[in-house]
Every structure is written in structure tokens, then in C-alpha cells.
Automatic annotation (TrEMBL):
This is 2-methylcitrate dehydratase. One of its GO terms (molecular function) is 2-methylcitrate dehydratase activity. The keyword Ribosomal protein does not apply. Belongs to the PrpD family. Its EC number is 4.2.1.79. It catalyses: (2S,3S)-2-methylcitrate = 2-methyl-cis-aconitate + H2O. Residues 20-267 form the MmgE/PrpD N-terminal domain.
Amino acid sequence: MRNHRVRVHRSEENLAREDQLAWAMAQVATDPVDLDDDVVAMIVNRVIDNAGVAAASLARSAPSAAREQATAHVASSGGDGATVFGLDSSVRTSPEWAAWANGVAVRELDFHDTFLAADYSHPGDNIPPVVAVAQHVGSDGASVVRGIATGYELQIDLVRAISLHKHKIDHIAHLGPSAAAAVGTLLGLPTEVIYQAIGQALHTTTTTRQSRKGEISSWKAYAPAFAGKIAIEAVDRAMRGQTSPSPIYEGEDGVIAWLLDGPDASYEVPLPEPGEPKRAILASYTKEHSAEYQAQAWIDLARKLSGDNPDVADPERVDSIVIHTSHHTHYVIGSGAGDPQKYDPHASRETLDHSLPYIFAVALQDRAWHHEASYTPERASRPDTVALWNKITTVEDPEWTQRYHSTGGDASYGGRVVITLTDGRTVADEISVADAHPNGARPFGRDEYVHKYRSLAVPVLGEEEAERFLALALRLPELGPKEVRELTFAAPAGVLPPPGPPGIF
């Protein structure tokens, strides 16, 4: 890897485009280096993973509304159109709208992959726009795989180096550029075109982090889909010769100078050397549980603690529960956020899956986690749960913050919990990473990805349709254009809800 140094430049310095971060990213996207077999295998895993969580969300409100928006737009004249999850493959819409609908379905349950470093990310959000454009233009599976590899590489490299959340910028500001570059790789576009698309995508997907604060709304699922849609539109404009603000990162009125660390800032963004394989996807990890990633390890620990000592789940026997964890976990999903909504039994599902006190309480009591049952209003408002929930607080521990930011492959996303019982006894334990993490007790491999997919997709799609999609996805690198266009799934009659309130389209 090489470190690309990024700093703010005054306009009169006339920073050459070849020295800009967007250009360096575009060069990575156009590098024809072969993909390693383990990278290809992981890309297949993530396509399967995305499909499973999308299938499980089809009947929910946000994916349903996004699907209705998408199907209101006929396929554009430049290709055959793209498919929408839940509908027959003969139903086509424009690729940017298919990416929109499918991206919302993937993100709705907060249940697919993650990478955490200087910032947060769900790099699987790069997949819907790549597949949608591939279906529209007739790309083969090998091209899809190459595009996805670029998306993962660039988003993860940005997340390693540049913090957005510190400045209250939503993490889709790293996704817009990576998705644009991913589509550029898919299409085999020149460096110049991808450079312009990256600039446009960043400029138009830099949004505030209020989408993940307080009472979290349905927009949380739409945000990455918006980035994917905008990325496709940015590529289209760039292909037509249209240019973007430049230098988008380094300019004196650019993103870094005014929205991030300011005019004196500098970053070192790690990027692959020319000819170096794109392997960043292997640093990311999926979720075993449908909750914010920084809660994954705590669900696993809660199940273990409750199994060993049932008293810890009884609010009558618990005096307090204090979770010692990293800065990120404490301030984003813990009591350090200062959001009273994180203790509100009537809060939205999106808010509850960003409340570590709620998640830990339910996991202690149920010794399990379910993407639907763990979030129902009845479950959230159960009196004994509310009582236990309100005894749980988080505190930042510098040791766990340091471990969170480790770059040596041993990063930790857990912490230590101390449970004080009313009889004076103390129960304490710690966990470094989730069981499903590559360094965890039960790392996810192909079998686990397939099991997760089947457990989510079969109850919704039926076994025949779920297995048809799975068989195609497992052969992704070998698929021809016709088979790529079948890389979707249809829900049987009665699964999808009737249309909701009409909009403009």
C-alpha cells in the first residue's frame, strides 16, 4: 500500500489533478490487476448476505415505498433496465432507481457488513448500484466482481484515514465516491471520467449526521441508497463529458477545508500501489445479529452472561450495569450520546438498534436476538425490560478506545461490563470482538453466510426461489449478461404489502 497525502491547497497553488486524491482513487479503479481467489469468494459471500437481509425486509415500510418509487420510472433508453428486489425479473426500471430500491432493502434491517476505523461504513452498500448498472448495460459477472472489489477497496481506504462523524458528516460521504468508482470499474471507463464522477459524487453526497441522532427515522435506510443513486447519475454525467468541482477534497473551499478538519488538515489515505491486488474487503465483516455493529459483541456477551448467571437478567436482582467501552460505542450507541430516545420504550426501531442499553437488556433476558421479535413495540415496552434497561449505562474507557483504533489487525469493538447485584455480588466479564468476526469465537465462512441467507430468505421467498438466487450468486464470477439480469428474486403473492400513499411519481 502507498499513503496518499491529502492537504488543503489554495487556488493559486493550482494543484495538478494527478496529485489529487480523487485522481489517485480513479487510478485504483482503472488498474486492471487480477483479483485474488479469496477476495472473489468474499465478494460472493457479500452478494449472498445482501440478498438475505434484503429479502427479510421486503414487506417493511421503507423498502416498500422505495420499490414503489422505483417502479414508477420506466427503464431508460440506454439499456435494458435493472431489476428490483421482490418483483419478477421481467419488471425493469432505470438503474439508478433500481439501485435506490435495492439499496434501501439491503440497509433497512441494519444487518449486512461493516468496517470500522476512523469512520464507520457498510461497504456492502456498493453492491446495489454496481449490479443495477450491470443489468442495464449487459455486463457479465466477472465485471460485476471487479466493480464490487473497487467499491470495497476505496470506501474502506477512506474510512481508515478520514473521520466524517467527528464533524457530524454522515458516512455516505465516503460511499458516494467509492460507488462511483465501482461503477466506473464495471464499465471499464478511463481514469479521467472516473475522476470527474468521484468529484461529483462526493460533492452531492456530503450530508449531516442528524440521520443517526436522536429519534432516528426511516431515512437511515435511504441514505446509502441515495449515495448509490447519485453515484450512478454522476458517472452518467461524467461519461457525457461533464466536469465536477476540483479539487474536491483539497480545494480551499472544498470538503476538507470547510466540512472536515479545516485548512490546516492533512491525511494519509492508504491506497493500493499500481499492480497491487484490491484486498480491502477481507478487512470487513458481516453481522450475525440485526443491530448496529458496535452492539454485536455485546449481544454475544449478554447471552453468555445470562446463561451462566440468570440473576443478571432480573431487574429485581440487579442494582446497576456499567459497560466500559470505546469512545465511538459510548457516544454513538451508548448513554454518552445524550439521547433520551435511547431509553424510550416507544422509540423507533431505527433508534432502538442504535441503543446499546436496550440491546444489552433484551439480549440478557432473551439469550437471543431476532431481526423482528427483538424490536416489536410489545418487546420494547415490557415492564421488566424497561426496568433493567434503565439500570444500564456506558462509560468511555481509554484502553478500549485505543484497542478500537488499532491498525494491527487486532482492533476491538467490545469492552468490559460490570454488573452489580442487589445482594452485593459483582458479575464482570469482557469481550473483544463479536463471535462472527474473523477474530471471533465462531468466524463466518461460506457455510455461515449461506445459512444466514437461507434463514432470512426462505421464509419470505419460499425455498425454490431462494435456492434459485443462491445458485446464481454462487456462480457470480462465471455469469453471462443474461444470468446477471436474473440476479434478483421475486416474492410470492401476498408477501408484498399493497401500495402506500401516492407521491408525485
